[in-house]
Amino acid sequence: MAICALGYLGVRSDKLDDWSDFAGQLLGMQKIDRGGKAAAFRMDDHAQRLLVSDEPGETLAFMGWEVTSKKDLSIYAARLEQAGTAVKAGTKQLTDRRFVEELIWFEDPVGNRIELFFNPMIASDPFVPGRPIDGFKTGPLGLGHAVLHVEDIGLMLPFYRDLLDFHISDYGLQPFPLYFFHVNERHHSFAMVGSGRAGFHHFMVEFANLDDVGQGFDLAQQEDDRVAYTLGRHTNDYMTSYYARSPSGFFVENGWGGRVIDPATWEPHETNGGPSFWGHERLYLPEEGGRKTLRDMRLKAARDGKRAPPVADCPWLYETLSRRSAK
Fold first, then answer.
1. What secondary structure does DSSP assign to 231-299, as a single string?
2. Shortest CA distance to 309 belongs to which of 255, 248, 256, 237?
3. pLDDT tens string for the chain (327 positions)?
């Protein structure tokens, strides 16, 4: 029994035109005509990865997590109901909208809608990006990752860790609590920020080519207030990325070169060096409202000589060399 990947995301927003420009022209996703009051997007061979519905709220509508076998749905449903969480089976109409064979849905302790699904539909036509990019790193690693604001990590941690079998990759306690979880070889597919409030912090898409991130960063800088975090590199998953402000106000991390782990041998641990080796200046934060604190942590990391492993350990380079040697 296992949840194996973040399969899709849903967003509530009445800014469909803005989302079409943002997801298509900046992120490079392919817009799909679904009709009605919704905008849908592809990132790969899956029929749908992101669905934006014309509804009030401007926030996360649902997270779709893939399971490895159909029987996992009934196993998770029984476990959740035994723990007091109401579970509903997806109707045929709902599974058709999600382009999956079967699903169940429920809410986490603070009301975020979670959908567990089996067997996503694969599109018959090839993926065509919204701008010239080499594509996204998805496949068995899933869409990317999703991160929630939470008021009380102590309330949320048992739900995701113990009931849904999300495995802790690492966590930090300063300057605010951060917990990262893996469900496959991606360093993390889910995380929680103990910011003292509820809501959607960001989701991440990982590009196949670093230049696609850099060119997107150039595009984002042409728009006022579009860049939320400048280009930088994270300390735990080694992702080189920048964060763009979405039309709904939450962020989308545009990354490359994320860390790939071995879940069978990985040991969870505490990190205390701050979230970034360099960069990731939080442009949205006031100077004395956390921005300076995080900058000081980066500068200390530089003074201490902290950095990611050599480029030879870069997953992109490793995969490229492996493909060449196999020819």
1. EEEESSS--EEEEEE-TTSSEEEEEES--B--TTT---EEE-S-SEEEE--BTTS-IIIIIHHHHHHHH
2. 237
3. 599 999 999 999 999 999 999 999 999 999 998 777 899 999 999 999 999 998 877 789 999 999 999 999 999 999 999 999 999 999 999 999 999 999 999 999 999 999 999 999 999 999 999 999 999 999 999 999 999 999 999 999 999 999 999 999 999 887 788 999 999 999 999 999 998 899 999 999 999 999 999 999 999 999 999 999 999 999 999 999 999 999 999 999 999 999 999 999 999 999 988 899 999 999 999 998 789 999 999 999 999 999 998 754 555 555 554 555 455
pTM over 0.90: yes
> Cα–Cα distance between 49 and 45 in angstroms, integer?
10
